[in-house]
Every structure is written in structure tokens, then in C-alpha cells.
Amino acid sequence: MHCMAHARRKFFDALPTDKDLAEHALALFGQLYAIERRIKDGGLSGDAVAEVRQQEAVPVLGTLHAWLQEEYPKLQLKKSPVAQAMAYCLPRWEKLCLYTTDARLQIDNNPVENAIRPVAIGRKNYLFAGSHEAAQRAAMVYSLLSTCRLHNINPYEWLKDVLQRMHLYTTAGIEALLPQNWVKLTDWDMD
Predict the structure, then answer these.
(1) How many C-beta atoms lie closer than 10 Å to residue 154's C-beta?
(2) How big is the CA angle at 44 (ends 41 and 50), to the nearest 5 degrees?
(3) Are residues 10 and 101 in the same domain?
(4) pLDDT, tens only, 87-138
(5) What is the pTM of this model?
(6) What is the rounded CA–CA span in Å between residue 69 and residue 189?
(7) C-beta of residue 135 within 8 angstroms of C-beta of residue 129
(8) Are residues 22 and 78 in the same domain?
(9) Can you tell me the distance from the alpha carbon of 155 to that of 176, in angstroms, rounded to the nearest whole number?
């Protein structure tokens, strides 16, 4: 799968040089993202997501693809930013549209890029972790805290709770304390 946000960004970057064509493409991308916003806001999942995408997004993608195929031959020799944006999309078209066939897929990979941004930003700092083992421990902590965020768990509450009761678990049962499996115990539950 390729990222629709990357394709869209290329047209956005082409706005200063070819406003009309870039705005036309961006309007179609905007329709696709509006559909995804409605899916998210409506709390849809599974078959409902696939159905909405098939009924609404596929026709917009068809319009965009036909437009790209019509306009690109007129521009390809110019090497303009909008021509480069079209040249980026056309060979990747099938994979750009793959998200419409599976509700588990996203229109772009922005959530993944946002999740790994702290790691990418801190990469230089990890050189000074002290040792290879310390860097591995730091990576584990980052993974656990990112998993908390993914499951809408307050990392402070999770860590505080886990540290207070991890001594009650055997190595075999410790998986119950991982963020994706964690159930916060109240004071009443601990009595």
C-alpha cells in the first residue's frame, strides 16, 4: 500500500506553479479525506467501512484517475511540479487505492509516521544511552508507552498501577500487565 498523503502533498507543493490543476487534484483528495473523516466520526468499522469506501471513495478515485490519465500526457514533457505529482501517482495508482478493499487499512500512513516520530527525533540521543543494553531498555519503555497511547491509556496511571502490583505476578502471567491487556484495579479490588 502507498500513502495518499504523500501523493496529496506533491500536488500541494505544485500550487505555486500550477494553481488550477493542483487545486483540482486537491479538491478530489479533499473529498476522499472527508469520507474518511465521516467514517471515523461515525464510529464505523468492518463491513460498514468497506461499504462506504466502495460506494463513495471508489467513484472519487475513478474520477481522479481518469483526470490524471487525461492531463498527464499534456504535461509530461514540461517536468513541472504538477507533472511530477501526476507521475508519482499514476504508477502507484493500484496501491494508492488498496485501502478501499480492506477496512483495516488506512488511507495514508500518517498514524504510523506520527507513532515513530519520537524515535526518529530522539535517534541521535540514543547514541548516548550508556550501553547497548541501556538503549534496548529505553526502546522497550518507548514501546510500552506508545502502546499505552495506542490504547488510549494514561501512561502515568498504567505505570504507577503496574509497578505497585507487578510483584504479585509470575513471569508466566506478567503479560496481563502489558498495556493492551491491562485492566486497572481499584483499591477495592486489591483488598
Answers:
(1) 12
(2) 125
(3) yes
(4) 999 999 999 999 999 999 999 988 777 777 776 776 666 677 778 888 788 8
(5) 0.66
(6) 63
(7) yes
(8) yes
(9) 16
